């Protein structure tokens, strides 16, 4: 049986996209070395106009690796990164990998409780953190050394000078970027004092673990997905193959997605390096800052989430900013509204297509062809070297007929090897033959185009970020007067919002806003319920489990 018969979706691939990619034969460290060799003088990183070439990036990585080696970091050790998008993040990522150690990415917006849970789980003894959050990391889990990163050190000289001016507005801008981190080691001084790591230092192999990325999968307590150099390099190669119109050494990628998220990590930290692209870094998404950068260094490729596309297109029209340099845009993490596609393509003249993936798959497995064969409303077809099946959720050995809804299984070189120290959880999702259960109910037509119907579990996706109901509910139950709680996702115009139904002690007079305020102690801002609905009781199953689906239905009905 030929490849087209086995994978009918390959007929819909854009011209030039192969059915399979070559097996990666080197680590992510080799990926950077190859880029430095091919594109040395080209700008690799742009941060508010401060630039770093590929040659300079490779040198900084070698020095940072030596600095970390002197701190005792070695092969297999976990190193926590708690950083926004900045040049130091890119350097730290590759420096940790150069030592054969394992990167663990963390959201710098997490609360101390959230960080403590993950740091305790993976046991990193060294953490590299934004200086504003370094005090939250110190002493958590097994961490014994915190290296603090000052974002302002990476700014252009003139901007650094301007931030020293004794004006209230300037002081506010500076305090938003940096803060004292007592007891932490300064990153810039450590790297400046280190020579390059000796060239003969053992390098990682392609099969070694490169990354622990925390995810709840489809539900539950976040757990570390174990991703190898092979997984991440394969997904970068699949992404490169998916867009044959890209020009190596001539593209500019905007990193508006956070690098600590699986989507931003692959599209910006590995894919961009693999094609010798200039990566323009933004610590957070701000439409005006992004559009200011467009005039300085026009983007050609933009990975983002639907709300970002809608905001950028709208503001660009209002400001008269030309976005026609963006030939390709890839949307993920949440459903892409057709109206957003229409607006974006009117403003840019480029293509906006949707993809699908999970942290456990590095993350992309499915994408709409970057060609007229794309089908808006679907998430597309399986990537090169990727197989997909639709099965009975109750019996994954039984395949569903084309067009019939079932659970999506995927198989490919980007699929992870399991959850960190969670063999039982791993066994639930990794099946014989290399298949992985996604937990999503989908349909697949005869041409292989996949449409997401529903999630088996109640994972909430808000602004492109995963929110696990159990985390929100745990935070709510910590409030003394909250007796019970259920968190669900309700649809908004461009995604979902977190809404919680709570039962409170009738003897306590409290407002929904007061409950939201209490949540902020334990939850990152995007996890705090946008709305709190106080109810007399919650629906339970016969075994005493809260029926979140019924809660959601009641809230949607306004009951």
UniProtKB/TrEMBL annotation:
<keyword id="KW-0472">Membrane</keyword>
<dbReference type="InterPro" id="IPR020845">
    <property type="entry name" value="AMP-binding_CS"/>
</dbReference>
<feature type="compositionally biased region" description="Basic and acidic residues">
    <location>
        <begin position="389"/>
        <end position="402"/>
    </location>
</feature>
<dbReference type="InterPro" id="IPR025110">
    <property type="entry name" value="AMP-bd_C"/>
</dbReference>
<keyword id="KW-0812">Transmembrane</keyword>
<dbReference type="Pfam" id="PF00501">
    <property type="entry name" value="AMP-binding"/>
</dbReference>
<feature type="domain" description="AMP-dependent synthetase/ligase">
    <location>
        <begin position="33"/>
        <end position="420"/>
    </location>
</feature>
<feature type="region of interest" description="Disordered">
    <location>
        <begin position="364"/>
        <end position="404"/>
    </location>
</feature>
<dbReference type="GO" id="GO:0016878">
    <property type="term" value="F:acid-thiol ligase activity"/>
</dbReference>
<dbReference type="InterPro" id="IPR042099">
    <property type="entry name" value="ANL_N_sf"/>
</dbReference>
<keyword id="KW-1133">Transmembrane helix</keyword>
<protein>
    <submittedName>
        <fullName>Long-chain acyl-CoA synthetase</fullName>
    </submittedName>
</protein>
<feature type="transmembrane region" description="Helical">
    <location>
        <begin position="260"/>
        <end position="282"/>
    </location>
</feature>
<dbReference type="InterPro" id="IPR050237">
    <property type="entry name" value="ATP-dep_AMP-bd_enzyme"/>
</dbReference>
<dbReference type="Pfam" id="PF13193">
    <property type="entry name" value="AMP-binding_C"/>
</dbReference>
<dbReference type="InterPro" id="IPR000873">
    <property type="entry name" value="AMP-dep_synth/lig_dom"/>
</dbReference>
<feature type="domain" description="AMP-binding enzyme C-terminal">
    <location>
        <begin position="471"/>
        <end position="545"/>
    </location>
</feature>
<dbReference type="InterPro" id="IPR045851">
    <property type="entry name" value="AMP-bd_C_sf"/>
</dbReference>
